[in-house]
Amino acid sequence: MATYLTLEQCRELLGGVAKSTLAEWRADGRFPRGKLLPNGRVLISVSQLDAFLESLVSA
Question: What is the pTM of this model?
Answer without folding.
Answer: 0.88
